[in-house]
Amino acid sequence: MKLEHVDLNLLVYLDVLLREKSVTRAAEQLGITQPAMSNGLKRLRELFHDPLLIRSRSGMTPTERALNLVPQLRQILNGMNQLLEPQQDFRPLSSHRVFRIMASDYAEATLIPHLVKALRSEAPGVVLDFLTPSDVSAQDLEQGKVDLAINRFLDLPQSFHQISIWKDTFSCLLHKESPYSSRLSLKNYLSANHIWVSKTGMGMGFGMDPDKSGGLGWIDQALERLGQKRKIVIFTRHYQMPAMLTLNKDLIATLPTRVARLQAENPLLVILPPPFYIPEFELKMAWSPQLHSNAAHRWLRHLILFVARKMLKNEPIETG
Hints:
The protein is α/β, with parallel strands linked by helices. It has helices at 9-20, 23-30, 34-48, 64-84, 105-110, 112-122, 138-142, 186-191, 218-225, 241-245, 257-260, 295-312, and strands spanning 53-56, 59-62, 98-103, 127-131, 148-151, 161-168, 170-175, 193-197, 231-236, 251-256, 269-272, 281-287. The protein folds into three domains: 3-82, Orthogonal Bundle (Arc Repressor Mutant, subunit A), CATH 1.10.10.10; 94-165 and 286-312, D-Maltodextrin-Binding Protein, domain 2; 170-279, D-Maltodextrin-Binding Protein, domain 2. The protein is built from twelve helices and twelve strands. The strands form three sheets. A five-stranded mixed sheet has the order 4-3-5-12-6. The chain has a five-stranded mixed sheet with strand order 9-8-10-7-11. Helix 1 (9-20) packs across helix 3 and helix 1 (9-20) packs across helix 4 (64-84). The protein starts with 8 loop residues before the first helix and ends in an 8-residue tail after the last helix.
């Protein structure tokens, strides 16, 4: 069939149907009636010579043909959005745009304060709305409902754009009067009580299992490779907590080095290297292809990378 004989709105219908897996919800999202959506699905089936969505106990399930169409479909629709989007200059000094950013607690503790400082001089009217990983799904990011995600990602859909912000190592934070503050050997480390702190990925998190061992993250995986396991007595998702909790002399927090260094001037705490090897991790920034060419979005991405480079060089952040 020739392209001029195809209603391109059907591609939009198909995209929403494959996301929602429901005729009713797809119709609601597009603002059309359910009969119109059902008719659209019928025409799509005729166009692709495939059922595309079939009924199952869990709702409507995409066929193999439909799943194979998804990458090309998203690429086509993103290209059309970019083609039709007005090309406007972005003037940060006079802008009042709201940017929604999913940021891990690690990013909020390290990168975000410096980003906000840069924004106050370069774009004082811009509003930042920070969301936690539990607030956001991959679908929210893909649809452009969230401008950026800044986190340590274990896995991302291939359609997302992403770039590395920096890499970080780990350090131990403990009270200066801890029995291990003068010599933190592996034996001492394993005999101590530990604070676990982390949150990666997107979506709702659940309570942790102390017996999960290597499934708890980088630190415990590194110990598991040594055939060892630490005793975790406190689980938290907030990097502000360890500085207060390690005022208890029997507790040790193993943290990203940039977070630990925030306590460098605290006279009650000391920062020591871990007594075993922990691989470094990478903080990344990810965004939807729908926003890739947007002028305001591109400006924000460049500003974040500029701020990160200044931080890595320990240089003052002056945006001009």
